Each structure stands twice: as structure tokens, then as C-alpha cells.
Amino acid sequence: MKRIAFLLLSGLFLMTSCVYESGVSEAYTKYRFKDGVTTVSVPGWVIHLAAGIGDLEDSERDLLESIDRVKVIAVDDDNLNAHIDLHEEFYKKISEKKDYEQLLVVREEDQNVTIFGRMDESVIEEMVILVGGDDNALIYVKGEIRPEILNDHINLSNPDKFLSLGH
Fold first, then answer.
1. Helix, strand, coil shares, percent, the chain, to 5
2. What's the pLDDT score for residue 26?
3. In a domain, 155, yes or no
4. Rounded to whole angstroms, how far apart are CA atoms 34 and 164?
5. Domain that holds residue 59
6. What gap in Å lies between CA 136 and CA 138, rounded to an integer?
7. 74 in a structural domain
8. Would 116 disulfide with which of 44, 100, 152, 155, CB 3.0-4.6 Å?
9. Predicted pLDDT at 120
10. Residue 131, phi then psi, degrees to nearest 5
11. Residue 2 lies in a domain
12. How many domains does the chain have?
């Protein structure tokens, strides 16, 4: 009986501790094994390790230390890019989740970018960067990121270097 109770409690704990990011998990599951798509999942301990051993400025180190998890889906294949639009496919699913708010929206003729965030008073707990059009990507970041840390690294004037670490 103790063994069954332990297994049930362990299962309940695991189910409640697993985060389901609406749209993000679906996209990751759908595209992770497709040819022409690169998917990367980086746990926080690896990011924190990089922050500790890299030759970084203090603000860069602070940014990396505030991140607990990163998931990336990037479409590398030009033919596949022409047939899918991650922004169109997952925008509605992510925006319907009421605890995400739009932090930045860029609409151009050939590219759409939306950054969603889930805030808790003074920190960004989750960010979803959704890119669709000529290029397709979905980036999920979880942590406790203070917005002022991002200010030093965001460059709105150059979309190719929107978020830059290093100089």
C-alpha cells in the first residue's frame, strides 16, 4: 500500500511540475523530427554553466543566469519555409492563453514577429518569440528575467541582430 501511495504521489508531483506551454509544446512536438527543422532544448544548468565560464560582461552574465530553460525551433530548409508559417499556425493558440501578453509586434510584408511574455510584477517569467514568413522560428525562454537586463541587448534598428550578446 505504501508503494502504491508513493507512486501515485510521485506521478501527481511530476504531472503538476511539468509545464505545458500552449502552442510551444505543440510546435515542438510537431516539428522536432522534420527534415529541414532544427530543434534545440537547453536546460538551465547548461545556460548557467555557460554564464560562469564564458568571457562575458556583467550584464550578459546576469541575462544568462536569469534563464532557466530555452527551446528553439528553427526552419532551415528554404522549400519548407515556403510552405509553412509558424507565426500563422501558432499565434492564435499562444495569444488565447490569457496569462501571455504581447510585448512586441512587428508586421512586415514578408515577415511577422510577435514576442509574448508572462510577467510577474517585476520579472518576465516566460517569453515566446514567434517568427513567421520568409523565415520561421519559435523560441521559448523561461526564467526570471528583469526587463532592464534586456534593454542593453535589444537592437530594434537591426532585425538581424535584434538580441545580441557580445560586441
1. 40, 35, 25
2. 85
3. yes
4. 28
5. 20-161
6. 7
7. yes
8. 100
9. 86
10. -125, 130
11. no
12. 1
- Bridge partner list, 132: 112
Residue 144 counted as domain residue: yes
121-158 residue pLDDT tens? 888 899 898 999 888 999 999 999 887 877 665 655 55
DSSP helix/strand/coil, 26: helix
Q: What is the mean pLDDT of residues 94-98?
A: 78
Helix (H, G, I), strand (E, B) or coil at 152: coil
**Digit-coded pLDDT (tens) for 36-85:** 999 889 998 988 888 888 787 888 888 888 899 999 999 998 898 888 88
Whole-number Å distance between alpha carbons of 140 and 142: 7
Are β-strands 37-43 and 101-107 bridged in parallel, bridged antiparallel, or unpaired? unpaired
Residue 16 is inside which H or E element, if any?
helix 2-17
- Would you say 76 and 36 are in contact if contact means Cβ atoms under 8 Å apart? yes
Q: Are 165 and 154 in contact (CB under 8 A)?
A: no
pLDDT for res 121 = 80
**Residue 130: all three cell numbers together:** 514567434
